Amino acid sequence: MADYQLIIIGGGLSGVAAGIRSARFGQKTLIVEGHSLPGGLNSYYYRQGYLLETGLHAMTNFAAQGSKHAPLNRLFRQLKLSRKKFITHEQMGSEVIFPQASLRFSNELDLLCEEIARHFPASIDRFRAMVKEIDAYDPFAEVPWQSARNFLRDRLAEPLLEDMLLLPLMVYGNAEEHDMDLGQFAIMFRALFLEGFFRPEGTIKDLIDMLLEQYAQFGGELRFRASVAAIINKDDTVQGIRLENGEEITADAVLSTVGIPGTAQLSGWPLDIDEYIGRMTFMETISMLPELHLPPERAGRTILFYSLNDELRYHRPAEPIDPSWGVICFPDNFQGLERQNDAPTQVRVTNAANYDLWQQAAADREQYRHLKEACGRQSVAAVSKILGNYTQGAIFQDSFTPMTIERFTEKRGGAVYGSPIKIKSGRTPWSNLFIAGTDQGYLGIVGAMLSGVTIVNQHLLT
Fold first, then answer.
1. Cα separations (Å) of 123 from 126, 174, 313?
2. What is the mean pLDDT of the chain?
3. What number of other Cβ atoms are within 10 A of residue 271's Cβ?
4. pLDDT tens-digit profile of 194-208?
5. Of 12, 15, 96, 9, whose CA–CA distance to 54 is shortest?
């Protein structure tokens, strides 16, 4: 008899959600996490006494409590969590900024439509027709890869508008360079433009604590500092895992959330792993400020997606970072979110990065530190063209890099959104080994948790 019915590798949000769903139905479940904190990419750390979040700019897929079929509410039912007690704060409003035009949007599609009608009047009817088409599209159908750029070009025939729509969708969840799969595009379009951004009350730690409490109540077990050395398999099934300390734990099934390359290496899965390692990774610079003073035209914005270039350049840069485009997030700018008078405010800036150059720098601690400082200055200088001298009087700055992401998420190459090749079924060559998370094709915090739940429902509760 196996030690557990299900072992989950990785204590990120997809793994924890899978654990809750499994344990809720009485399965003896163990989550093993290599680090001392849960959450994976969506975790937290402390600097100078302040809690800093590593992944939560904003959650996507907002839904009011009464919307039964919305992903957020469906997720809470699956995890048997109270949606009424989950207090949410919608975005104030966000903006896509290019040199030639800008588009504001909110959780109401009408604002985006008004902006498109104002800046691209010849495209508004085509855009509305495209929205209906996307709303009816099944992004999880097993179909060959299709180009989102070709889809947009055929429907809109307006290159600038195509780039402006793609920027937030790509930077919030696209593992590919230059283009994205139409299914991924449809998922992200719904998540950002049809449902929208919000923040839960509190921090990412509060959300994680809520999930872990639910997991424990259902009898689930969680072990930290338990790095996996190998997935033990024989013939067409897996028998369990071997930890780096040599301990072997048996299971009826194993669910891996460490991505396709990591799962392949642990299990001996015969893949060309390089094909499955994503190239898109990022550096994030966090500025802690006593006050936030935005230009009048940007006041009240929640997230700014910016490009200083006329065209979108969504690819791995040749330099350590590319500050010419990215994301600027103001985590305090959500409706009804109150900040204590003495608490600093944050500005978080995310820019595309080159993993290979960061890996080379990481071999020398001093070189790595200098590179972080230099790239932080580059990022601030670029963003200052939009916000002015926003870091004046900063209390402190901190940043994390592709190496940080790889270390704490096990995503090879620091690829935040995982492999450019997705396995939508979650299946592997072994009948009882499955994958969940970004490499299944679900993205964002809600998507990550739904991925874990979906795999348990489809493969492990039968």
1. 5, 25, 23
2. 93
3. 18
4. 999 999 988 889 999
5. 12
8 A C-beta contact, residue 412 and residue 406: yes
The CA distance from 295 to 258, in Å, is 41
- For 452, phi then psi, to 5°, come to -60, -45
Residues of the chain with pLDDT under 70: 56, 340-341
In this prediction, residue 56 carries a pLDDT of 66
Among 153, 101, 93, CA closest to 123? 153
Scanning the structure block, which residue is given the tokens 């991505």? 259
- Whole-angstrom distance, CA of residue 118 vs CA of residue 130: 18
Three-state SS letters, the chain? CCCEEEEEECCEHHHHHHHHHHHHCCCCEEEECCCCCCECCCCEEEECCEEEECCCCCECCCCCCCCCCCHHHHHHHHHCCCCCCCCEEEECCEEEECCCCEEEECCCHHHHHHHHHHHCHHHHHHHHHHHHHHHCCCCCCCCCCCEHHHHHHHHHCCHHHHHHHHHHHHHCCCCCCCCCEHHHHHHHHHHHHHHCCEEECCCHHHHHHHHHHHHHHCCCEEECCCCEEEEEEECCEEEEEEECCCCEEEEEEEEECCHHHHHHHHHCCCCCHHHHCCCCEEEEEEEEECCCCCCHHHCCCCEEEEECCCCCCCCCCCCCEEEEEEEEECCCCECCCCCCCCCCEEEEEEEEECHHHHHHHCCCHHHHHHHHHHHHHHHHHHHHHHHCCCCCCCCEEEEECHHHHHHHHCCHHHCCCCCCCCCCCCECCCCCEEECCHHHCCCHHHHHHHHHHHHHHHHHCC
Distance CA 42, CA 61 (A): 16
CB 59 within 8 A of CB 198: yes
pLDDT of residue 143: 85
For position 44, what pLDDT does the model report?
Answer: 85
pLDDT in tens, 344-365: 899 999 999 999 999 999 999 9
Q: For residue 361, which amino acid is it?
A: A
CA dist., res. 160 & res. 99, Å (int): 10
pLDDT of residue 378: 96
Instruction: Output the pLDDT for position 450.
Output: 94
Q: What is the pLDDT of residue 139?
A: 87
Structure tokens at 129: 């027709």
Which domains are seen in the chain, by residue range?
A: 4-61+202-276+419-460 (3.50.50.60), 94-195 (no CATH), 279-409 (no CATH)
What pLDDT, on the 0 to 100 scale, is given for residue 69? 85
